[in-house]
Amino acid sequence: MEFTYALVVLSACLLSSAHAAAFNCSEPPNLGAFDIHSCCRMPEINLGNAPAKCSAYIKELTTQMANMNGVGGSKQTENNKNMNNQNNPDAAAVEYPAYAHVCYAECIYRETGSMVENEFNMDNVEKFLNKSVSKGDKDIVPQIVRSFEACLNNIKGHLEAVGIKTHAKLPMGCSPFASLMFSCVNAETFLNCPAKMWKNDHNCNVAKSFAAQCNPLPHVPLPTANWLKP
């Protein structure tokens, strides 16, 4: 989840240059060795057994897709796969395929009750956050809720504007809706991070100013008509 958060903000940072008044969104800022995670301290959230369940779910999907593509599951294949992973770091992509971030986000939201029948339930989102965010991080909960609401309204508004009711599902049964929301919520929370949790230094402030100008809501590319269904 942190990896996606970093990509959302840094992808925006790579599109602009850092000037005091305005940014040129086609040129990258020079922020040097910069850890975006240090800017807005993300809360500790107790997800219970959801991560374990969802990791198992991704493995199950990967096996199903491999079987559909005619890839065997013998012990020899498993041994070869393990050896390949040891010798080639890029082989990890096979273990965690491109669609995994889409399906994993949907699974986490589903397991925590935040998504019910493919729709976000804001009452459940707020209840889960109030229950699961550590006591020392409670200050950020209202902002995360506002971020959910802003992202949900923006993405839903986009769909309505193009006359679409819902996102089409990928072949493995997952919708991109949850992962879009996850990325949007993280970016929106970054932009509106409570002062208590914000690192007030030059690089963080430049990243925030740039993102506000060059990466506005919904902070992520929305699906084209080809991704969607009536």
UniProtKB/TrEMBL annotation:
SUPFAM superfamilies: Insect pheromone/odorant-binding proteins. Residues 102-209 form the OBP47-like domain. The keyword Secreted applies. The keyword Signal applies. One of its GO terms (molecular function) is odorant binding. InterPro entries: OBP47-like_dom, Odorant-binding_protein, PBP_GOBP_sf. GO terms for cellular component: extracellular region. Its main location: secreted. Residues 1-20 form the signal peptide. It is found in: Secreted. Pfam families: OBP47_like. Transmembrane segments: none annotated. Keywords: Secreted, Signal. It comes from the Eukaryota. Belongs to the PBP/GOBP family. This is Odorant-binding protein OBP50e.
